[in-house]
Design brief:
Distance between the termini: 54 Å
Shape: globular
Number of strands: 8
Strand content: 5-15%
Length: 393
């Protein structure tokens, strides 16, 4: 078993062979991956060394102190947090070798083709079809709310392969080439003025069967791995104290005593404590992850993330008074990354409204927590054993 001392020694060797100050950024990241210091808990040859996940912090701290470049995780978050763990668990050896290195280095951006206009919260009701054609699958359908589709090279995709089965059992999981001529990406302009989301139309898109993850008809099972990792990556990311949404309002409070009132002070203190509790709970969750795959607890973190962001940003607008009603720029943009806390108070307030929808709606997450964490009875599901083709639409 690789220990902290060995990892530290390997990190120092990497820095000596590839000094960050004089090494091209991409070359350094590739060397780090090849040294097994990208994801230390991944297998040897796939960016890791089979070490405990908790030891990643040893590597990260040494590299940060040396001024080494990172792989811009906000830009490639879907690949890192969702595609990679799913490929690792369900992909063939060929798929792991092909995709994990350029994914981690950031040479290839990923997006997620899951939600549809008629299948959002009830994702298993999706209607995008994949029909077998020899060694390929032909895919037709529409996806929506697809972050980064306009810059993505690859996508994780779930499609219906057997409409005669109940909705959860007739789905298969694929890797889709976003450069296929049948893929059309259209921007969806949001309340912020930006279009970080997209709708994606798939017309006779050809996907090799070799790009299938998991068995035919078991796509829902594979998707659970993706979704659980997604909620951890959204709600349980590592941040410093006063990181995230609480940081800007705390700074404003310290710098602008003219805005303070006793009531605002009490409300800010309450939210500051809630944010710190959530941050520490996220740290605990990451330590639990070291022992295995993420579970439904990640849904609780994502739920808290959405609630806190909306309450904190609302308080920030109120604290700033008339200034809080200003907005810097409503120009249509298609950003390459999602920045929940960037720009001004007005942007943070508007952008946070999507936090309770994206990555699993808060209502769905409450059901998951009730059933899978608290052990409460499941809600009645009358369509559970009905063939998808017979469902009312």
């Amino acid at each position: 078993m690789t220990d902290a001392a060995e990892l530290l020694a390997r990190t120092k060797e990497l820095l000596a062979a590839h000094p960050p100050a004089s090494t091209d950024r991409t070359d350094f990241l590739k060397a780090r991956f090849d040294a097994g210091l990208a994801w230390v808990h991944y297998p040897t040859g796939l960016g890791g060394l089979g070490a405990p996940r908790t030891l990643q912090a040893v590597v990260d701290a040494e590299l940060t102190a040396a001024g080494a470049p990172d792989n811009d995780p906000r830009r490639i978050g879907i690949g890192l947090g969702m595609a990679a763990p799913t490929i690792l668990k369900y992909g063939s050896d060929e798929l792991k070798q092909r995709f994990l290195r350029p994914l981690w280095v950031g040479e290839e951006v990923w997006c997620q083709l899951f939600s549809e206009p008629g299948a959002g919260s009830d994702l298993a009701a999706l209607g995008t079809r994949a029909v077998r054609d020899g060694d390929d699958w032909i895919v037709n359908g529409q996806k929506v709310w697809t972050s980064s589709a306009h810059v993505a090279r690859w996508a994780i995709l779930i499609a219906r392969t057997d409409p005669d089965l109940p909705k959860h059992r007739g789905i298969t999981y694929f890797i889709c080439d976003m450069s296929d001529p049948g893929v059309e990406v259209r921007p969806l302009r949001q309340i912020t003025g930006e279009a970080e989301f997209n709708e994606v139309f798939l017309t006779d898109v050809r996907i090799p069967d070799a790009h299938r993850l998991g068995e035919i008809g078991e796509g829902w099972k594979v998707a659970q791995t993706t979704l659980m990792n997604e909620r951890v990556s959204i709600g349980g990311s590592r941040i410093p104290r006063e990181g995230g949404m609480i940081g800007p309002i705390a700074q404003t409070w310290r710098e602008r005593p003219d805005l303070r009132t006793h009531d605002l002070h009490q409300r800010l203190l309450t939210l500051w404590v809630d944010a710190e509790v959530a941050r520490l709970a996220g740290e605990r969750l990451r330590q639990q992850l070291a022992a295995g795959q993420p579970g439904p607890e990640g849904s609780g973190m994502k739920l808290a993330f959405a609630r806190l962001n909306q309450e904190i940003s609302g308080l920030e607008v109120e604290l700033r008074g008339e200034e809080g009603l200003l907005y810097d720029d409503w120009t249509m943009r298609r950003p390459e990354l999602v920045d929940f806390t960037g720009r001004d108070a007005g942007y943070r307030y508007l952008r946070s409204k999507g936090n309770s929808i994206e990555g699993g709606t808060s209502e769905v997450l409450l059901n998951i927590i009730a059933e899978r964490v608290l052990g409460l009875p499941s809600e009645p599901r009358n369509d559970k054993d009905v063939a998808w083709k017979d469902l009312a639409r």
